[in-house]
Amino acid sequence: SGGDMRKQVGLLFTTVCCRIIERFGFGDGKAGFDNMFLAVWRARAHVAVAESAGRIEHLLGMSPGEWFGFQANAGGQADRKTSATMVSVRVRHAISGGEIWVQVRTGATMGEVKLAVTAKLGLPQVPDAAHIVRP
């Protein structure tokens, strides 16, 4: 299935790229990858970033926008995946009860929800202590 393929590609990607991600200052482990994906997401409006993301997805055998959640359109600008594939997700703070709504693609992982919350809050990186769980 698509989810299994995504997990297998993710494992391969992390194995091959973990030292590179750390060398570029994103940190190590899962937090480093979360920070790298957040940086790519924030820079998605840059044509070179959108085109590079598309090339990576192509090399990984994925559809445009399937891995990074956006793609370059015909005008060279980055588009989010179509709104038909996006859903609104409510995230509530476990202690304070505060909540925030974010847009993610249908079938998004909890990690993608965490990246969307981090970006919406304008945080410079994904907090190490951030954990998102289903109620």
Quick structural overview:
The protein is an alpha+beta fold and 135 residues long.
Describe the structure.
The protein has 135 residues and is an alpha+beta fold. The chain is 45% helix and 15% strand. The protein contains 4 helices and 4 strands. It has helices at 2-23, 29-42, 47-59, 110-121, and strands spanning 70-72, 78-80, 86-92, 99-105. A hairpin with a 5-residue loop joins strand 1 and strand 2. The longest helix has 22 residues, at 2-23.
Descriptive terms for the model:
single chain, 135 residues, alpha+beta, two-stranded antiparallel sheet, 4 strands, globular
Query: Over all CA atoms, what is the radius of gyration?
Result: 15 Å
Question: How are the strands ordered across the major sheet?
Answer: 1-2
Net shape:
globular
Mean pLDDT: 78
Instruction: Give the structural class.
Output: alpha+beta
Quaternary state reads single chain
Main β-sheet, in a few words? 2 strands, antiparallel
Strand content: 5-15%
Binned, the helix content reads: 40-55%
End-to-end distance: 26 Å
Total beta strands:
4
How many helix segments? 4
Which runs of at least 5 residues are low in confidence (pLDDT < 50)? none
Output the helix-strand order: HHHEEEEH
